[in-house]
Amino acid sequence: MESRRIAVVGCGYVGLTTGACLAKLGHEVSCCDVDGEKIARLRRGEVDIREPGLGELVAEGAATGGLRFTRDNRQAVSGAEVVLLCLPTPMGADGDADLGAVESVVGDIRALLARGAVVVTKSTVPVGTAERLGRLLGREDVAVVSNPEFLREGHAVEDFLNPDRVVVGADEPRAAELVAGLYSPLGARTVLIDPVSAELVKYASNGFLATKLSYVNDLAELCERTGGDVEAVTEGMKRDHRIAPSFLRAGPGWGGSCLPKDTAALLRTADTASVELPLLRAAVRANGHHQARVADKVVDRCGGDVAGARIGLLGLTFKAGTGDLRDSPALAIARLLADRGAQLRGYDPECAQLSAVAGVRCVGDAYLAAEDADALVLLTDWPEFAELDWAKVAEVMRAPVLVDARNQLDPREPGRAGITWRGTGRTLR
Ligand SMILES: NC(=O)C1=CN([C@@H]2O[C@H](COP(=O)(O)OP(=O)(O)OC[C@H]3O[C@@H](n4cnc5c(N)ncnc54)[C@H](O)[C@@H]3O)[C@@H](O)[C@H]2O)C=CC1
Ligand SMILES: O=C(O)[C@H]1O[C@H](OP(=O)(O)OP(=O)(O)OC[C@H]2O[C@@H](n3ccc(=O)[nH]c3=O)[C@H](O)[C@@H]2O)[C@H](O)[C@@H](O)[C@@H]1O
């Protein structure tokens, strides 16, 4: 593999993982970020996101000199053969992806890029962005390549180093080969396509995952009405290799920093192209319904009214294994309960430093969340919740009621302590 001089712009989940992993593969990487404090911490070897293995890779990169950090985007990109844009593309007005950061960086660096440099969108960007950035750059010698990232939070390093595929969307074979070559030591399947299709692969994949989950959550509701058990149903479904075992766990609806914003952006792209995408639209609508269903179950268990009731929440992040609260279903459900007058106390192992979030008072352990509660709701399946002493939980609660939105627990465990358990799509037999 040829070692390349790479600039990574944006040191978040994607940028820091990409920079550290590419340095590990032998490239010379300069990472930059507007957040000066983050850069200062990274220079001290401090990684402030919860990603197994990332701290070690950052330390290794610093020790070999293959990974450097700067606050100055311009310094990072000058002399780079490849510039990877790992900038935020949050949900903007009407659900569109907001390309403000991406466009402003491209405007800033256009005159500084080395001759023949390649600019790569690793951020999730809508169809047509590569072409648009090409025009903004106004440089005949600089190609723009789409190379979407598919890593999951909490598994960022593992996913980056073992990708199911590397997608490279380019109009020019030279640029395509250069970008694909960065990953060649990984031995991954490489999909070389045009930039528009590459941009679509990313949204199509997240849209498919969101639709799969909404379907499973719809099935969970059907199980509740018919006496079925969604865990048994999905166990049977996942043995079919065409369906595949992952993304079949019913829960409190999907969330996180990407599925909600990417489904919204894909629907906007469809609107602009006058295409309906009815399945995806229904999947998004169903997700709001499934979040509301969790809140309704709690209200139901509290006798139809939660005004003044004390509700304990177990888990606040959008899934276990991450400290990320962006678009967390747990917080959406908390807001629904707060709107109905509930007083909320929540515990999450990753939120110990917070005093409050989304109307939830944060406490230091699960038993404090359960104290004097009229109901307890398990919203994020952190492993430690499976180890709780349910007799102790029952003892401190005002009413021993548990809504396990993730189906994390064996219902017999809280049951033995006299706690009434209610899951998602499960019928107790
Ligand atoms: N978080 C994830 O699991 C994945 C995210 N993506 C996509 O990757 C992109 C980045 O996402 P994350 O890494 O999660 O975002 P993030 O919010 O964790 O990190 C973005 C970083 O960019 C920096 N930044 C903002 N403006 C800047 C500028 N003008 N110059 C330099 N740095 C700047 C921020 O300070 C921040 O450190 C988004 O488009 C996202 O949709 C794609 C796959 C996975
Ligand atoms: O574009 C992105 O940023 C990333 O978005 C997701 O990754 P991530 O946001 O880290 O989270 P997931 O693990 O996909 O979970 C998303 C949501 O679905 C929920 N989920 C997931 C799986 C499941 O079986 N059941 C379920 O309810 C999770 O709890 C969470 O709320 C995709 O899985 C990544 O491939 C993609 O790169």
Automatic annotation (TrEMBL):
Source organism superkingdom: Bacteria
Record-linked InterPro entries: 6-PGluconate_DH-like_C_sf, NAD(P)-bd_dom_sf, UDP-Glc/GDP-Man, UDP-Glc/GDP-Man_DH_C, UDP-Glc/GDP-Man_DH_C_sf, UDP-Glc/GDP-Man_DH_dimer, UDP-Glc/GDP-Man_DH_N, UDPglc_DH_bac
Any one GO MF annotation of this record: oxidoreductase activity
Keyword NAD belongs to the record: yes
UniProt catalytic activity: UDP-alpha-D-glucose + 2 NAD(+) + H2O = UDP-alpha-D-glucuronate + 2 NADH + 3 H(+)
Pathway(s) of this molecule: Nucleotide-sugar biosynthesis; UDP-alpha-D-glucuronate biosynthesis; UDP-alpha-D-glucuronate from UDP-alpha-D-glucose: step 1/1
The protein's Enzyme Commission number: 1.1.1.22
Domain UDP-glucose/GDP-mannose dehydrogenase C-terminal: 312-411
Keywords, ordered alphabetically: NAD, Oxidoreductase
Similarity field: Belongs to the UDP-glucose/GDP-mannose dehydrogenase family.
Protein name as annotated: UDP-glucose 6-dehydrogenase
Lineage: Bacteria, Bacillati, Actinomycetota, Actinomycetes, Pseudonocardiales
